[in-house]
Each structure stands twice: as C-alpha cells, then as structure tokens.
Specification:
CATH architecture: Orthogonal Bundle
Shape: globular
Largest sheet: 4 strands, antiparallel
Radius of gyration: 18 Å
Number of helices: 8
CATH class: Mainly Alpha
C-alpha cells in the first residue's frame, strides 16, 4: 500500500523539480553565470515527502532538467549530487533534536541572522548590477527583462526572508530554524559536489561557479522554508 501511494507522490515531486528548474533562470552578464529556483523544489520534496522521495525527486528531476536545457555533461553528476542533497535534508529533518520552546526559538533567531547575512553578502558581492531575468519553458517560449540589483535590494530580500523564518517559527512551527539550517547544510553538498565535479572531471575554473551555487541554495531556502511552514499550517487546520 505504501509503495502504491508513494509512486504518484514521487512522480509529482519529480515533475515539480524539473519544471521549477527549467522555468525560471537569472542570468548575470558580468560573469555569464545563472541560477534557477529548482533548489526550492528539491527542498520541498525532501521536507514534505521524506528522505527517499527527496532523493529520487531531487536527483532524477534535476537530471531531467539538465537534459532538457542541454547541459548533458552535468546530467550524471546532477543525478548523484541533487539526490544526495534531497536525501540528506530528509534525514536531518527526520532526526530533529528534542529542544524546549525557548531553545527552538533561539535557534530560529540564529537561523534568521545567518540567512540574512548570507543573502546580503552573496547578493551584494556577486549579483549586484544589471541582471537579465528569463521566465518561461523551452517548449513554450520565454520572456526576458533586465533588472537592477543593488545593496538595498538584497538587504530587503534578506530581511524579508529572515522575518519569514522567524515568524514561521514563532507562530507556526517552532523547529523552522532547525529546518532552515538543515537546508543550508544539505545545500552545501550541492555546492561542494559541483565544485569537485567541474574541477576534477570537466577541468573548469570551478571556483567561479561557487557563488552562483550558493545563491541557488539561498533562493531555495527563501522559497521553500516559508512555503513548507505555510503548507504544514494549512494541512493541520484542514484536519481539525
């Protein structure tokens, strides 16, 4: 019975990861790099579906996105790296420590400060200036426009994410701070994994891609954690 239930759920999350990865990209002309929002779907799959579903959806869904976008050399590495990322987050979340309410909230405040600092630092150093944003799907067509990203923009984004994490922890789920830190830890697997693959197997100057991959993790946390907290609240109220 469990297998029959997990198959459609896994298929849904795998499709979600694929679509989220190919549907929205941000290109930075100064460095010719870009990131996508697929990380948020990988995080959501692991948080809502657990370690096994997170691993399959993260690995296979992201690999399919690479194939659709034409990044064939990265597809094998993506299968392993994103699979491990989803697996690790699912495992970490399933093994939450037992803390008192005050300790949960303190952890959430710490997580909020960490997220704000990372968003502000990485955004200001590597994503400031004019950036081209593309929205669409390869088989439908896409639309692009240029936006100006400044210190104030990243301070606003970082502050909004930090407030969302803190609010979700204090009003909805106390362990949101732990989940946020777990997502950052599992995201580091992606950052390190692609660095090693590009450096050792593709011979690229892989260090140049590290800021973009860190930015991708932060985008994932920005979207996935508030979405997860909201979905859990809705689910809890629907059962009352």
């Amino acid at each position: 019975m469990r297998l029959a239930r997990d198959i459609p759920v896994t298929a849904f999350y795998t499709s979600l990861v694929t679509v989220a990865t190919v549907a929205f990209t941000i290109y930075v002309p100064a460095t010719r790099g870009y990131f996508n929002v697929g990380e948020s779907a990988v995080f959501l799959a692991a948080l809502l579906g657990g370690a096994r579903i997170g691993a399959f959806a993260g690995g296979v869904g992201s690999m399919l996105a690479d194939l659709i976008l034409g990044y064939y050399l990265f597809a094998p590495a993506t299968l392993v790296i994103k699979g491990l990322e989803g697996l690790l987050l699912g495992v970490l979340v399933s093994r939450r420590p037992k803390l008192r309410e005050r300790e949960w909230r303190l952890l959430s405040v710490v997580a909020s400060v960490i997220v704000f600092s990372l968003v502000l630092t990485v955004g200001t150093l590597f994503y400031s200036g004019s950036s081209e944003v593309s929205i669409g799907l390869p088989w439908i067509g896409s639309h692009s426009f240029v936006v100006e990203l400044s210190f104030a923009f990243w301070a606003l984004i970082g502050g909004a994410v930090a407030l969302a994490v803190a609010y979700a922890s204090f009003s909805a789920r106390q362990e949101v701070g732990y989940i946020t830190i777990s997502a950052l830890v599992s995201g580091s697997v992606m950052v390190v994994g692609y660095f090693l693959y590009e450096q050792l197997f593709l011979g690229y100057a892989a260090i140049a891609e590290v800021p973009f991959n860190i930015g991708q993790v932060l985008v994932g946390v920005t979207i996935a954690i508030p979405a997860y907290a909201s979905l859990k609240v809705i689910s809890r109220r629907s059962r009352q």
